[in-house]
Amino acid sequence: MSSVERQLDDLQAEIEDEVPADITISDVTYEGPELVVYTRDPKEFASDGDLVRRLASNLRKRITVRPDPDVLSHPREAEEQVRDIIPDEAGVTDLDFHADTGEIVIEAEKPGMVIGRHGSTLREITQAVGWTPEVVRTPPIESSTVSNVRNFLKQERDERRDILERIGRQIHREEMADDEWVR
Description:
Elements: H1 3-18, E1 25-31, E2 34-39, H2 42-47, H3 51-59, E3 62-67, H4 75-85, E4 92-98, E5 103-108, H5 111-115, H6 120-129, E6 132-137, H7 144-155, H8 157-171
Parallel strand pairs: 2-3, 5-6
Antiparallel strand pairs: 1-2, 4-5
Helix pairs in contact: 4-6
């Protein structure tokens, strides 16, 4: 077991101590500078808005909470519920589901309406469907460049995640040498 694996196990144990007993943590990994916490109860995390903030300050790390892929609702059902929750004035143009990360990319003309006051609508979406919403603005003028970039990011999502995980392990590994000199 490498030092990074031990560190992740320690972090998972510490997170399990911090969160309420009814929340199950299934996995903890690094993705770049962020600590990604996979949970079987994303709705419980969404109901307590300060829980992630408290964890981040106690662990002194950036934290992203994602639902475990096993607990995600079906995309068609989730799409109906999300469209019911988001106000019609927001102008939702597209919903894109990423099952590997448990995220919904919501493309809307007015992202502020989708987010809601202090993120209330986003929390409501997470509580209702279990998916983690990410909001992007619809371009005011239809642009092939923007759509090409978004499609490229969608296609390379797995490779990007592998790279971020590898970088995260390198960032959080133990120091190799005692010397602080470059030369």
